[in-house]
Amino acid sequence: MTTSSNVKISIPEAAQPVLVTGGTGFLGRAVVAALLAQGAAVRVAARRPDRLPPELRDAERFTADLATPDSFEPALEGVGAVIHTAVSYGSFERQQQVNVRGTQALARLAAERGVRRFVHISSLAVYGYRHSEIVTEETPPVPSRDPYSMTKRIAEKAVQATPNLNWVILRPGAIYGPYAPLWTSALFQLARRRPFLFIGDGRGRLPLVHVDDVVEAILRVLDDSAAVCEAFNLVHPEPVTWRDVLSAYAAAAGQTLRWRAVPTALAATVASVAALTSFSPSMRAALPELLYFLEHAPSFSTDKLQRTLGWQPQVSLTEGIRRTQFYLDHLIEPNT
Ligand SMILES: NC(=O)c1ccc[n+]([C@@H]2O[C@H](COP(=O)([O-])OP(=O)(O)OC[C@H]3O[C@@H](n4cnc5c(N)ncnc54)[C@H](OP(=O)(O)O)[C@@H]3O)[C@@H](O)[C@H]2O)c1
User: Fold this and answer.
1) Mean pLDDT lowest among 104-118, 161-175, 275-289, 310-324
2) What is the model's pLDDT at position 208?
3) Which residue out of 27, 73, 119, 232 has the highest number of ligand 1 atoms within 8 Å of its CB and is therefore the one to mutate?
4) Which DSSP string do the residues of 106-160 spell out, in sequence order?
5) Are 40 and 16 within 8 A, CB to CB?
6) Rounded to two decimals, what is the model's pTM?
7) How high is the pLDDT of residue 116?
8) Ligand 1 residue neighbourhood (C-beta within 6 Å)
């Protein structure tokens, strides 16, 4: 496995060492790679820090678990900034423990140690899934029964309420790029299926953002006081649909996508039946809104991020697929 970085932004001395929680995960690894490429002192904390790929081993590794937040104390000692990417996508109880209580305790520990910047990686999921208009940072969330949406929203509030914390909240959309398990690997494999089936006509928007654009925004907020105590949407403004993305992945595999739509009503019925047997009660409850989102995802404004930080998305879908092609080729190698 190779983790490279296309992002070049100098890291202020005062932010170092930078602690990346979840630095072994998909986004975390990309952040660690970019920080190391700038020569920054980096720490990684996770339950299994040895999963850090060899090329990122210049980062100092700490074993820590958000279920027992005091385990982060050694990793926090003397750090200038925390980039909090660690997350659980598990059961509702697990997400409450890790995403909410773990984040709350970590933010408090960071504030007590005088950490200068706490960058909390949130998600557009905090808005809920049933919006029809352009969503800005001021848009009130619609209630959601999705555990991820709920816990990420409560976690944000916990971070914002932490006394003496210079927090910044970034809310990325669907992050794709090399090593993205869902928005690249899973969608690429879906696009290659024969026959290819998808719910609806695929004209709903997918709020996509390339990992390099996310990493650039993260590094920028380490050194910009205008970002402190602000939350920002983080998505590419190019309006791409599910059909665009799946067609692009199919083309990257040398195939042409022949779209076969499963009617949404039928999909909802099948999904409900499947959910009865295989999903947790909380996921089951969230299914209708997730299916709605598939066809009706709104636009998310990034004006605030562009205005405040001068962030400009660099990676269109075409460029993003180009940057990801080496990984897609690896996915179709025999025995992978
Ligand atoms: N991926 C996306 O498309 C996307 C979109 C929007 C927002 N986000 C946000 O971006 C962040 C990173 O997401 P990701 O998809 O890159 O996650 P990921 O690949 O699943 O990585 C999660 C990381 O968190 C660590 N972790 C999990 N449970 C932990 C615990 N109890 N204590 C300490 N560390 C723990 C994992 O390492 P161990 O298992 O070794 O502990 C791993 O390093 C998250 O905050 C997520 O909400 C992601």
Assistant:
1) 275-289
2) 96
3) 27
4) HHHHHHHTT-SEEEEE--GGGG-S---S-B-TTSPPPP---HHHHHHHHHHHHHH
5) yes
6) 0.94
7) 96
8) 22, 24-28, 46-48, 51, 64-67, 85-88, 98, 121, 123, 152, 172, 174-175, 183
Please report, to the nearest 10 degrees, the dihedral formed by the alpha carbons of residues 108, 110, 114, 117 taken in order: -120
Average pLDDT over residues 156-181: 97
* Test site for ligand 1: of 43, 63, 87, 123, most ligand atoms within 8 A of the Cβ: 87
Tell me how far the alpha carbon of residue 25 lies from the centroid of ligand 1, in angstroms: 5
* Tokens matching residue 127: 């808005």
Residue of minimum CA distance from atom 17 in ligand 1 = 25
Residues 248, 186: contact at Cβ < 8 Å?
A: no
* Residue nearest ligand 1's atom 43 by CA: 22
What is the mean predicted confidence (pLDDT) over 124-130? 93
Q: What is the pLDDT of residues 203-217, one digit of tens each?
A: 889 999 999 999 999
Distance between first and last Cα of the chain: 12
Q: Domain spanning 13-176+207-236+299-315: which superfamily?
A: NAD(P)-binding Rossmann-like Domain (3.40.50.720)
DSSP run (H or E) holding 252: helix 242-252
Q: Whose CA is nearest to atom 8 of ligand 1?
A: 123
